[in-house]
Design goal:
- The chain has 14 helices and 9 strands.
- Helix 1 runs antiparallel to helix 2, helix 1 packs parallel to helix 5 and helix 8 packs antiparallel against helix 9.
- By secondary structure, the chain is α+β, with helices and mostly antiparallel strands.
- It has 3 domains: 85 residues, DNA polymerase, domain 1 (Orthogonal Bundle), CATH 1.10.150; 64 residues, DNA polymerase, domain 1; 133 residues, Beta Polymerase, domain 2 (2-Layer Sandwich), CATH 3.30.460.10.
- A hairpin with a 2-residue loop joins strand 5 and strand 6.
Length: 290
Amino acid sequence: MDSRSAAHVLSQIAAFLELAGENRFKSRAYQMAARSLLALGSDDLAPPLRSGELAEVRGLGPATLAVVRDLVETGESRYLEQLRAATPEGLLELTGVPGLGIEKIHKLHAELGIASLADLESAAESGKLATIKGMGPKTAKKILAGIAFMRNAGVLMLYPHAIAQANGLLAAVRSHPDVVRAEIAGSLRRRREVVGDVDIVAACAVKPELVAQSFTRVGGIRSASENGGVATVRYVDGTKLDLYCVTPPEFATAFWRATGSNDHVDSVRARHTHCRGFAGPRTRSKPRCR
């Protein structure tokens, strides 16, 4: 069991506890434990669990360690399954609607029987939400906008959460024995308020394709692919990594291409029409100027 998968389970438990109306501090304890596990960046939690090293990690307590032990020994969490069985599955999805807090979700479920995103959308469109005190046409409009944002945004993250994810992934990339330098690029480097993925550029001492491929085989991955030294990895918690592996001489140019916006890169390319093969921001080929 890798640390990212275990952290994802702990985060789900925290969300279900909130929905169940449990003590707020209990939910926060699982959230804190999830962050602590994610920071470990381990592909196998069994050795530190057996040695007792995991018990010394700040943020992990007896209850959260019991969940990790369950995951290591069985691959599943009995506690998560108990919480899931006691909670309508669709309610967890509702927590992702911007501006819709746990208290409002409970109210919607209790008074209108709303238990899914489809139920919520239907109630907002039909005017049923207006029957609930404090939820008029403006609230319905905001909720519909929030649902639309969720569907269009996919797994967009706010900058603070995204940079925390990126720093963990950057540490993992830098720890690779064949990576001589790695930096965060893309919209995170430009400090965009909302980002869709984590871009990292890595200079490699060996063939870049080999390094990129190695990151498609680590733990906690939902899907992964590699093409020409570019690894695209989607993790179990929804985080997406685009890793651009290049040779050291290519690093500066690749770093610029992966960081600049498409408009910026296109503008610079237009000013360098005397160059042949000046590649776009998502390629590794080098410009060859006359």
